[in-house]
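[recover] target loaded
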């Protein structure tokens, strides 16, 4: 049997390797290189562990996307920013259609895969760094693959929407794929929503991390909301829901447009003109 110091040394070596934070990027690179489909492992802060997105999802071609995604991408218009682009499946599709696309992801591994697959303008950049773009740079912001989650919290929604307002044109839109956390009967999830509420968080504010082989990503918050919660998060922002697609299902899409009633000049008597949302 190995002496104690030697065993400790082994443990610390394993730990050093495991401290590689880009678990999701490593998974995409491994999948790109081996062409083998691997599952994403998600760990939640209550100890719940599950596989995440369907294996192979990030590399799928348009014909294999869900009907929801195929309907939603039809709302893309003008210059596109693909946030949390992953392996670039949506960017590549739009690029082939002639759109000018900028693709960002905080994962260096994901951006490497994008480059290898031919995504033209891929940057390692987080959703929190949108201020690096010039005003009115984009007409459409894509948040596909449930990437509404990247808003992270109610506060994050307000902060990031403000940045998105600045970097989009007046006719700018956000197409966000969202998961409704409440359409479940799984006790694990129902108890987690209660736990979140007790600690002053939104029910669907998931604290999680992604694991792949020996890599463990950092803990981060990922926000799942119902259509009703989304509507209330948008109050007093520059954005309104123009339409929901499959709004009564677990996975749905919201198309947000600029709330012109807020952006229009203040009328006599201090009242802003009101415009009914769809
Ligand atoms: C669920 S995957 C979706 C990938 C792609 N949109 C798709 O549908 O195939 C989420 C992606 O968001 C990226 N991501 C996570 N946090 C991010 C952040 N704060 N800023 C930018 N990208 C982020 C991850 O690295 C990952 O590639």
């Amino acid at each position: 049997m190995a002496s104690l110091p030697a065993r400790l040394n082994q443990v610390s070596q394993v730990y050093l390797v495991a401290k590689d934070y880009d678990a999701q990027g490593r998974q995409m690179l491994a999948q790109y290189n081996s062409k083998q489909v691997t599952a994403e492992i998600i760990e939640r802060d209550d100890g719940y562990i599950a596989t995440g997105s369907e294996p192979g999802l990030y590399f799928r071609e348009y014909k294999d996307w869900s009907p929801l995604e195929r309907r939603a991408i039809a709302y893309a218009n003008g210059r596109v920013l693909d946030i949390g682009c992953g392996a670039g499946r949506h960017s590549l599709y739009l690029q082939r259609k002639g759109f000018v696309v900028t693709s960002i992801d905080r994962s260096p591994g994901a951006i490497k895969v994008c480059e290898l697959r031919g995504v033209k303008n891929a940057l390692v950049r987080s959703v929190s760094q949108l201020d690096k773009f010039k005003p009115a740079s984009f007409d459409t912001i894509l948040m596909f693959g449930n990437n509404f989650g990247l808003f992270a919290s109610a506060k994050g929604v307000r902060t990031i929407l403000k940045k998105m307002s600045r970097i989009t044109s007046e006719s700018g839109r956000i197409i966000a794929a969202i998961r409704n956390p409440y359409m479940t009967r799984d006790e694990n999830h129902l108890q987690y929503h209660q736990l979140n509420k007790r600690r002053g968080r939104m029910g669907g504010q998931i604290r999680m991390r992604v694991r792949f082989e020996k890599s463990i990503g950092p803990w981060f918050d990922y926000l799942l909301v119902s259509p009703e919660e989304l509507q209330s998060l948008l109050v007093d922002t520059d954005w309104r829901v123009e339409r929901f697609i499959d709004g009564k299902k677990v996975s749905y899409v919201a198309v947000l447009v600029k709330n012109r009633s807020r952006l229009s000049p203040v009328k006599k008597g201090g009242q802003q003109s009101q415009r009914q949302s769809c």
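[recover] notes: The chain has nine helices and twelve strands.
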